[in-house]
Amino acid sequence: MTYDLLKINKLVEQDPMGLITLAEEEYTAKINGVVGQIKEAGVSVVLLCGPTSSGKTTTAERIAQGLGKGTSAVSTDDFFHPKNKINDVFDSKPDFDSIKAMDLEYMNNCVNTLIKSGKSEFPVFDFESGGTIIEKRTITLHDGGFIIIEGIHALSDEIIEMVNNAKRKNYIGIFIDFGSFYSYGGKVITGGREMRLIRRLVRDKNFRNSDAENTFNLWKNVVKNEDASLLPSAKRAHMRLNTGGFTDGGILKNQALNVLGEIKTSSEYFKYAEHLINIIKNFEPIDNRLLPTNSLLTEFVKN
């Protein structure tokens, strides 16, 4: 899907709330379609996979709401090794985009207990503190209910094996990504992975206590892991979902410009930051306060 930015900008100027409503209705229609397919599949386990900043958390929550009472969504992110152990896992700098960063044994115990007994305690990982488990929550799997496991490695061999070992061989796999692009004057100027980077820059600043310099520093490895393991695992998905909408750029614009503006001229990432700034300037800004509270974009922007 390629959106004409000149047309979008004109609509933003005329009726920003109307444009947001259209974008949210489009996303809701996609969610409803996925929910219908899950129900028809007759499974109880949903594995939702996607690259960084594709909107996995909100998408999993919205699917859970659509599936109804008795459905729970859990994130593989909650099974990262805590900061006092992560350095023991890696020989050098920790790589949180590698499946090695996850405590798979702990996750296997939680998932197996949930599927076999119907109830289990799941950890909640705190990114703000740099990596500690701040609490646990009880997840219940009711008869006729669903469990959604979301994360960048949700369709990995390791997690599929967990589900199989728990005697739930029937699962449905979903792969989500930012599959949209934006054109300006007939030329595609951005989209896909680059828009996910912009989403992540804003999210990391707002919710992960990470500045743009650090996000850029991590990005090369993020891309490496995506190409090596995540994108190939997409072949295991039974359906795909594009989470890239026509309001992303406008909603992200002001906060993205602020984050990118923090990159110093001496930084090795300064030229690329300038490139992103020049792209983002093409979007007409949209007030993020107009977003509904369940919008996917609230994963990234902060009021």
What key phrases describe this protein's structure?
alpha/beta, three-stranded mixed beta sheet, 303 residues, five-stranded parallel beta sheet, Rossmann fold, single chain
Folded structure, characterized:
There is one protein chain. This protein is an alpha/beta fold. The chain has one domain (2-299): Rossmann fold. It has ten helices and ten strands. It has helices at 5-14, 16-41, 56-67, 83-89, 104-117, 157-165, 192-207, 212-233, 248-260, 270-280, and strands spanning 2-4, 45-49, 71-75, 119-126, 132-140, 146-151, 171-177, 181-184, 187-191, 239-242. The protein has a five-stranded parallel sheet with strand order 3-6-2-7-10, with helices on one face. Strand 4 and strand 5 (132-140) form a beta hairpin. The model has no long low-confidence stretch (mean pLDDT 91).
Question: How would the blueprint of this fold be written?
Answer:
Elements: E1 2-4, H1 5-14, H2 16-41, E2 45-49, H3 56-67, E3 71-75, H4 83-89, H5 104-117, E4 119-126, E5 132-140, E6 146-151, H6 157-165, E7 171-177, E8 181-184, E9 187-191, H7 192-207, H8 212-233, E10 239-242, H9 248-260, H10 270-280
Parallel strand pairs: 1-8, 2-6, 2-7, 3-6, 7-10
Antiparallel strand pairs: 4-5, 8-9
Helix pairs in contact: 1-2, 2-3, 5-6, 7-8, 7-9, 9-10
Q: Please give the count of helices.
A: 10
Give the structural class.
alpha/beta
Contiguous runs where pLDDT drops below 50 for at least 5 residues: none
Radius of gyration: 19 Å
Inertia-based shape:
globular
Oligomer: single chain
Q: What is the annotated CATH architecture?
A: 3-Layer(aba) Sandwich
Characterize the largest beta sheet: strand count, sense, and whether it forms a barrel.
5 strands, parallel
> What is the CATH superfamily classification?
P-loop containing nucleotide triphosphate hydrolases
